[in-house]
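look at this fold:
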Amino acid sequence: MSLGQGNHFAKKHKGNIELDPAVKEEVLKRSKEGKLPCAVAFEIVKDLGVTAGEVGKTVDLLNFRLMKCQLGLFGYTPEKKIIKPKDTENQGLKDAINNALVNERLSCKSAWNIASDFKIRKMTISSIAEGMGVKIKPCQLGAF
């Protein structure tokens, strides 16, 4: 769901896909001008007891845009990505990031978990990962 795709997000899903009517209704109700903030998508996840992937797929198939990634990686204007690389002296935090890597990437979910474990903001984790040269992927919502 990158900003460069021109609202053709549905194309990344193949075949005839049935949308969960409750998820679709909530996405339609809570979005504004075809845009849904990441935090709102996760409210839908919590409220309906569905997966983040299900909400993300629904957003895609409606050709809506996810905005304001809670890790600061996309969906902000005009910069798109609002985090800046950051260093940390906390070796335990660096180790937690390194230990969570899969194929040299940190998943969004792992970043959230590390933020929770260390009681720091999600954007702090993504800034530190950026400073370490670690890319965050995949997104729980399927945006990247």
